[in-house]
Design goal:
255 residues; mainly alpha; three-stranded antiparallel β-sheet; two-stranded antiparallel sheet; 9 helices; globular; MAIN-like
Length: 255
């Protein structure tokens, strides 16, 4: 995972999304410009923000998957050593990955170790970095990205994650034109969106909900500094008030 450039994400993976905050942000999102429309102007998440907050590379090869010549089941067996019986259309359940590859055996061979690492990376991509709206499955095409660890290390993971998040934000914003609530129907790395918001809009951060939280200022990547805090979830109207009305008085320009 270090070779693949994904290790910096591991401590951030447990961070979960706050539906109220995400809904409020999506309501301010403009797909035409990929920016948030705020009282003081337009702002957005940049590649530099992604690199600073997550440690993911923003320079390198484009994250592109080639369709394999073999069928999905054969590819799964080759790269993971096992394949689920209900594999259809190249989609695999994340729960199956986590149950099957729960703990690496102490006597595992180098080949088995790589298979377990690929399973973890696939779960990380499908459940965190490039999560879809189902939240419970991942396409095996992502497994090809970690077939060769050295090749994976040349990918601009941060650029791909941000691009995917932009697309999902746009889809969700268009969906909300016909619905007043987003609910759990959101794809992309929600924690990245929340980390950026806490940094840029301090009045929305967990520091205002939790007393005594010790936030390390010089953490690397910077997103790790929020791990000691416990998020208190609120409704979207609460956050809309903080992001749009009287309380939107502070925007941190540099992080």
């Amino acid at each position: 995972l270090v070779d693949a450039g994904l290790s910096s994400v591991l401590p951030l993976a447990p961070l979960t999304g706050d539906p109220g905050l995400i809904t409020a942000l999506v309501e301010r999102w403009r797909p035409e410009t990929s920016t948030f429309h705020m009282p003081f102007g337009e702002v957005t998440i940049t590649l530099e923000n992604v690199a600073t907050l997550t440690g993911l590379a923003i320079d390198g090869d484009a994250v592109i998957v080639d369709i394999p010549d073999e069928d999905w089941s054969a590819m799964c067996l080759r790269l993971l050593g096992q394949a689920p019986t209900d594999l259809g259309g190249g989609v695999i359940r994340i729960t199956w990955l986590r149950e099957t590859f729960d703990e690496l055996p102490l006597s595992a061979s180098p080949e088995t170790t790589e298979q377990y690492a690929r399973a973890y990376a696939l779960s990380l991509m499908g459940g965190v970095l490039f999560s879809d709206r189902s939240g419970g499955s991942v396409h095996l095409q992502y497994l090809l990205l970690v077939e060769d660890w050295r090749r994976a290390g040349r990918f601009a993971w941060g650029a791909a994650v941000l691009s995917y998040l932009y697309r999902e934000m746009g889809r969700s914003a268009l969906q909300m034109t016909a619905s007043s609530s987003l609910g759990g129907d959101f794809g992309g790395w929600a924690a990245l969106l929340m980390l950026w918001t806490w940094e840029r809009f301090p009045h929305t951060s967990p520091l205002h909900a939790v007393t005594g939280a010790q936030i390390t200022q010089d953490a690397v990547p910077r997103g790790i500094r929020w791990l000691p805090a416990q998020t208190r979830q609120h409704g979207d109207q609460f956050y809309l008030y903080k992001l749009w009305f009287d309380e939107c008085t502070t925007f941190v320009v540099s992080i």
